[in-house]
Model the fold of this input.
Amino acid sequence: EKGYATLNAAVAAVQDGETITLVADENFSATNYYNNGGWKDGLGYSGDKSFTIDLGGYTIKQDGSLNDYLVWIKNDGAKANTITFKNGTMDAGTTAYCAIATASTNAQKLTVNLENINLINNNSNGAVVKARGGSELNVKAGTVITAKNSYTGIEAAGTNTVVNVYEGAEIYQNGTSSYVGAIVGASQNATLNIYGGKGKSAKCGIIVM
Done:
């Protein structure tokens, strides 16, 4: 029940198992971004906690200042953790490479749940979601992923990385540039499980490399 001025401040303070609830839109800019080794992310988190971010119908977005990810998350602890995003919109805009990215390496398993979330990216060099580093991504009912001009909706990469797409999820790939590809893609020994849902692409559905 305590209030925080920014989402990054709330995530820094959240305790294991707690929920953060937005009470307004969060707009990342040149004054409130997360410095990720010189790259500009919006929300940045590296730690050992499980928590939920309930957008409460609001939107996480950016004003064009970000040159990396809208949301970057990494499990850097001693135990497996689960982070859930639900009930709102995450719009990465045109300068961020994706709406959500898991780190390329992590000490323990990270599970990310997307529940009733509208995810958007419009960067032709990026994906809407990048699951990496042995993380598990669960795309659940009510979640809509839209790659306006990004090369893919979901990119899964790396050994032990798993993406599960469930009934009620939707993934759209609307871009038409030469670099644009699929609704979902898997590479480097990642696993892709599609149990249901629907989607449409301007070029192809699934790519495995």
The helical segments are 7-13. The CA atoms of residues 147 and 173 lie 5 Å apart. The mean pLDDT is 93.
